Amino acid sequence: MKIRSLMMAVATATVGLSGVVVSTAAQAQAKEQFFPVLPYRTGAYAPNGVPWANGYADYLKLINARDGGINGVKISFEECDTGYATDRGVECYERMKGKAQGAIFQPLSTGITFALTEKAPGDKNSLITGGYGRSESSDGGVFKWNFPLMGTYWSGADIIMQHITKLENGNLKGKKNCAGVPRQPVRQRAHSSDAGARENARLRIEPVACHCTWCGAKGHLAASASTTP
């Protein structure tokens, strides 16, 4: 249910932002606003990509049927399956950017996001990265055409680390991050102005089988504190 709510929030925000992108003058001229869709219905991550693609398509159709489009401008869309592959994602972008006319692309992949971040400013197309993407895009002055709705992997990982730290009463000394996630945010905290964060940044990273101590009945995020015998 939480994943479904997250997906709906991104879709809603995307359509809402498109309402800003489409200017009043453009609305007077355009009969429809094109939405390029870059899903991954195939490939290793298809079990996650297919439901997203179906839900997103249904939501765009709903806006047309229920609201008559965005401010009277009907929505049209076209899918180009990336298979979660960066080269195919770039190919899909190049194929559809001429139809987009300043609309929004959702890469749905960190690799594709990195590739399109270099192209979006010149093409004046916005990139929505809902909960993933480049950490630098959190600063709007760095990548002005990237919109990291609901944060990035880094902000999410930092939230996880703060939560686990609270569960351990502020002390992770001697603990091990057996899953190897999140690696970079842990190291980033070593440069934090907070003394506790710097101490917790020494969390050892060991990609071995571990005993989970922060998951189970309480529903806490899975993490590990000690290796199995």
Q: Tell me the radius of gyration.
A: 21 Å
The beta-strand count equals 9
Report the major sheet: 3 strands, parallel
Percentage of helical residues?
40-55%
- β content, as a range? 5-15%
Distance between the amino and carboxyl termini: 36 Å
Strand order of the largest sheet: 3-4-5
The succession of helices and strands, N to C, reads HHEHEHEHHEEHEHHEEE
Query: What CATH architecture of the largest domain would you give?
Result: 3-Layer(aba) Sandwich
Annotation field: number of helices: 9
Give the full name of the CATH homologous superfamily of the largest domain.
Answer: Response regulator
What is the number of domains? 2
Task: Write down the overall geometry.
Answer: elongated
| CATH class (first level) name of the largest domain | Alpha Beta
Write out key terms for the chains shown:
three-stranded parallel beta sheet; single chain; 229 residues; 2 domains; Rossmann fold; alpha/beta; disordered C terminus; 13% strand
